[in-house]
Amino acid sequence: MLSTFDVVAEPNRRRILDLLRVESRAVGDLAIELQLAQPAVSKHLRVLRDAGLVTAEVDAQRRLYKLRPEPLRQLDAWVAPYRRFWSKNLDALERHLDAMPDDEPKKKGRRKAR
Amino acid sequence: MSEKKERPSGATLRFERHLRHPPEKVWRALTEGPELERWFPALVEGEREVGAPLSFVTEEGVAEGRITELDPPRVLAYTWGDETLRWELFPAVGGCLLVLTTTARGNRQWDACVERTRNALGGRVPVARAA
Question: For the stretch B71-109, what's the b/e string if a residue is b when 16 or more beta carbons lie within 10 angstroms of its beta carbon?
């Protein structure tokens, strides 16, 4: 079984999730919206269901797919420290760039680290 | 051509910053020791050449890496332990656009954790939007 990362890594599955984030949809609607063949969408939905990212509910004659946010929240929670870490470092880079002179100081041997 | 061993899965994060500085200057800040010391979270040692090994020294210890791409002042990429970092600079009005892509590797323990959590009720972790 694919991990949540692998499931979400596929771009069309991400597009499906983006659409379902807004509202539950049937396969046909998703296919039209994404301009994909319906069997392809069904295949992706199967993968998403197996991973617990979507559920299907029967509404009249149709089956509506609905997003389950919990796995994505957990993914997000795992990723959050990395995001914060690099965000902070980029802030530090910007502060340093603001303090750094634009002109390159004259020095030799720039290829070595120090 | 398929490999039997499981490839590690991970998340790719992408950061974009519009910088009020020219690409050449930002490149120096990304690659030169004395500049890096002022902001980078590790001391970086190694030759600035494609394929050259790098050492990253932090309070936690030393991690190894390698330069994978080097195209001044446009692309710099290297590995740092399990992570891959790719820095791209695009000229822009008033300075440049910096794009940092980093892959954080997941592991099986994490996947198992996600599985357990998925099956449990609750999960009051707030959803954060990408930076």
Answer: eebeebbbbbeebbbbbbbeeeeebbbbebebbbebeee
Query: pLDDT tens-digit profile of B26-50?
Result: 999 999 999 999 999 999 999 999 9
Return the closest-CA partner of residue B98 out of B40, B20, B31, B39. Answer: B20
Residue of A80, A89, A99 lying closest to B41 (CB–CB): A89
pLDDT in tens, A10-69: 889 999 999 999 999 999 999 999 999 999 999 999 999 999 999 999 988 899 999 998
Contacts with A, B 81-100, CB within 8 Å: 98, 100
Which helix (H) or strand (E) element contains residue B111? helix B108-119
Cβ distance of B15 and A100 shorter than 8 Å: no
> From B85, which residue of chain A is nearest by alpha-carbon distance?
A86
Binding-face residues of A in 31-70 toward B, CB within 8 A: 52, 69-70
Chain B residues touching A52 at Cβ < 8 A: 118-119
Interface predicted TM-score of the whole assembly (ipTM), two decimals:
0.75
Give the other-Cβ count within 10 Å of B7's Cβ. 7
A7 to chain B, closest Cα gap in Å: 10
Q: What is the pTM of this model?
A: 0.68
- Distance CA(B40)–CA(A109), nearest Å, equals 21
